[in-house]
Every structure is written in structure tokens, then in C-alpha cells.
Amino acid sequence: MSTSGKVLLEPAWILHHYPYRDSSLLLEVFSREHGRLGLVARGARASKSRWRGLLQGFRPLLLSWSQRGELGTLIAAENRTGMTVPGTRHLMSAWYLNELLLRLLTRHDPHPQLFSAYEQALKDMDAAEQPTLRIFEKRLLQELGYGLLLDHEAESGRPVTADALYEYRLESGPVACDMRRDKGLFLRGSSLLALHAGRLTDMAACQEVKHLMRAVLSLYLGARPLRTREVLRQMAISRGGDKPPDVPSSIN
């Protein structure tokens, strides 16, 4: 809801926050009707702030703000009930979703359907972490205009068949092939069709799709690595291994 340059009681999530000036916070917010935006929460870090402990990630909120330029000013914040949030075991994967939104969405570009997909992903995370991440990545790419061709061959236009093998060529789509080679992205037709339908129940399909999504997202993320991946790498080093821990391994 908005009125006279003010937005009132907008469903939103805080993607990240940073210290701002003496006692304030700069919030990176994802809202349903206004997309990603930056808000200044004045005095939020003060010991007697009315918002102390409220402005956190993965907490469903209703936010009100005034907008006069690039950054808005937070007016009010309250809890939004009836939402499921991911458990502690899946917080790293949830932060991964936040980082994708921060890196790929431009400010003040509404994506209400993506907002719903984000909330659904947070809800589904505990039950099926890896399928949830892959399906959200697909929805994110669709919203950005980079939707993947998954159910038809790129060159012939023939329907993808479950029992065939395909090489996925970035920025075009799947091409039927006879065998896997040392280089390239190869997926079974059943994996492509499962991603297309949003029903990734087979773990082998999840692994194939994970490699595909990592390659596609890299086209748009650029050379700067995701911080969540770097955190996992440091966790692995601290544990004396060369791979991320088992639980967050779903992160691309």
C-alpha cells in the first residue's frame, strides 16, 4: 500500500543490513510490490531502539517507509504472521538465495511472482533443500528474462525425451548427443524435463541440474565469487577437507 510518497505495511524480507553512520542501519530489502530497495533505519542500533532485534534476515515483516530518492527511510516495522522460515540447518542455503537476489536484481524493479517464489523456497527448504534451490534458480532466471529451454531441442525443435542424452549449450539449449565427452554440460532428458516441471525428486537429476544451473548463473554473476561459496570453502579448510560440509553442499 502506498500514499503520498509513503509505502505502508508492505510485505518484505531483509536480505542484508549494514551499519550506517552513528547508530543507524542500511537495510537491503526485498518487497512484494516494490522489488529490491535500500532503506535507512535511523537509530536502529541504539540500545533503546524500537526496532532492536526485529530487523533481521529470514523474519517475515510488514515495513512502512517514505521514499525521496535512491534510499528510503524506514517509518515502521512489525512482524508478519503465518510464514514458515528455514531452520538453522539450512540457513547457509537461505543466505545463498539472498545473495543471488542482491547480485542479480536491480533496485526498484518489482517482481511479485519472484517474491512468492522466494517465500515458497524458504518454506520448502527444510523438506527438500537441493530441489528447492534448483527450482528457485530456474524461477529467478525466468523473472530476469533468461529463462532456460528445457523441453525442446535447441536446433531441431523436437521435444526432449526422457531416455535420451543431451549436451546443454549455454544461451541456446539442449542438443541430442550419443555419449558424454570430457568437456561440456551433459544431462539426461529426464533431468531436463524434471526441472521444466519443477519436480526434482531424483538425486541424480538434482546433481546434473546443479552443474547446469551453476554454469548458467555464472554467465550473469560475472567473475566475482559468491560470498556464501567462499564461506563454505573456508569452513571446509577449517575442517581439514577440500569440499564443503555435507549439509550446505546444495549451494552452487
Structural notes for this entry:
The longest helix is centred in the C-terminal third of the chain and has 19 residues, at 203-221. 32% of the residues are buried. With 252 residues, the chain is an alpha+beta fold. It folds into two domains: 2-79, OB fold (Dihydrolipoamide Acetyltransferase, E2P) (Beta Barrel); 88-250, Up-down Bundle (de novo design (two linked rop proteins)). A five-stranded mixed beta barrel has the order 2-3-4-6-5. The chain has helices at 91-104, 112-124, 129-143, 189-197, 203-221, 227-238, and strands at 2-3, 6-20, 24-31, 35-41, 61-67, 71-79, 165-169, 173-177, 186-188. The chain is built from six helices and nine strands, in the order ββββββαααβββααα. The chain is elongated and about 65 Å long.
